[in-house]
Every structure is written in structure tokens, then in C-alpha cells.
Write a structure and sequence with these properties.
Largest sheet: 4 strands, mixed
Order of helices and strands: HEEHHHHHHEEEHE
Number of helices: 8
Number of strands: 6
Helix content: 40-55%
Bound molecules: zinc ion
Structural class: alpha+beta
Strand order of the largest sheet: 3-4-5-6
Strand content: 15-25%
Radius of gyration: 24 Å
Length: 182
């Protein structure tokens, strides 16, 4: 019984094998002892492997379920919430513009022009049940949208996404004007 309290039951993040590790070892090197073997630890360290893991739906599911489970334990939950509180105190409320972005100067200056003439900012347009697009500026009566496209929108993937978005908005009767900026 004495040994079990000194050891901790762990799940190898690489091969999903259950193993036991001395708690004292965890204190010394958490990263190294979080895997069942040297090979697994090496894999975990490699950035390439982690990148591949992040795109693996099974792994993502395992991690999110593991986190959910851990958050049900009062000790973990309190620890986590305390950390969040500390971060809030240090960095303040992290309220930003759409998609958690700080509104850039360009958007702010555009707001000065558009808001007085009846546009509203961050307008939600539902295109499916529970799914919406957040329009930068919208003149709701006439269904006119003004979108500020930053550097992110020049990426190929984003372009494809914007195309789908535009088609969906058009179908709903919206006229979308894109204003590119740096
Ligand atoms: Zn392993």
C-alpha cells in the first residue's frame, strides 16, 4: 500500500499504455517521465510528431476527453481556475474584436465613418441552424456588409473559405464589399 501512494498511475500520451511512475520522478522531470519509455518520450519531444498528433482526430478526442474528466476533479478544477484568475489579474479582461482579434487601427477608422451612417459592427448572420458569420460592418436594412480583409485573407486557404462564405451570404441576399488593408 505504501508503494502505491508513492507512485502515480499515468497514461502514455504516445502509445496509450498505462504505466506507473514514482511521484518523486515526476517532480524532477515531468516531461521526461510523462511517457512510458525512452522511445515514447523521444517521440513526444519531436515537433514533427506533435504536429501530426494535433491533426489526428483520435488524439484530439482523447486529449479533450481527458481534460474534461480531469476538470471534474475538484483539486484539478480549483488549480486550473486559480491559474485563470491569476492570468486575469495580470493581463486584464481579454476582450477583443471579432474572432478574438484586437480591432486594428484601420477597422477603428472605418468604424468612425460607417457607424454614424447606420452601419452596425460585429453583426451576426445565421446561415444554418446555430451557425453564423460575424460581419465586420453591416447595414441590416439593405443587407450590405463591409468586410475588412487583413493580411490573413491573402492566404490560399483563407481565400477558399472567404469564397464559400461569400456564396452563402449572397444566397441570403447580402451584398458583401471587401476592403483590403495591410
Ligand atoms: Zn508509450
Amino acid at each position: 500500500m505504501k508503494t502505491s501512494s508513492k507512485k502515480k498511475r499515468l497514461l502514455c500520451p504516445i502509445c496509450h499504455r498505462i504505466f506507473w511512475r514514482y511521484k518523486s520522478a515526476l517532480k524532477i522531470n515531468k516531461a521526461k517521465s510523462s511517457c512510458c519509455s525512452k522511445e515514447c518520450a523521444h517521440k513526444l519531444k519531436s515537433v514533427d510528431y506533435r504536429r501530426r498528433l494535433a491533426t489526428n482526430p483520435v488524439w484530439v478526442k482523447n486529449v479533450s476527453e481527458g481534460t474534461k474528466k480531469a476538470m471534474r476533479r475538484p483539486k484539478t478544477r480549483n488549480k486550473h481556475l486559480a491559474g485563470l484568475k491569476r492570468a486575469l489579474k495580470k493581463h486584464g479582461v481579454n476582450f477583443k474584436g471579432g474572432q478574438n482579434q484586437e480591432p486594428v487601427a484601420f477597422v477603428k477608422s472605418l468604424a468612425e465613418v460607417l457607424l454614424p451612417i447606420g452601419f452596425i459592427q460585429e453583426h451576426r448572420v445565421f446561415w444554418s441552424k446555430g451557425r453564423w458569420y460575424l460581419l465586420d460592418f453591416a447595414y441590416v436594412q439593405e443587407k450590405i456588409a463591409v468586410e475588412c480583409d487583413g493580411p490573413k485573407h491573402r492566404a490560399q486557404k483563407q481565400k477558399q473559405y472567404d469564397k464559400i462564405r461569400n456564396t452563402r451570404l449572397k444566397k441570403l441576399g447580402w451584398k458583401v464589399v471587401h476592403v483590403p488593408h495591410l
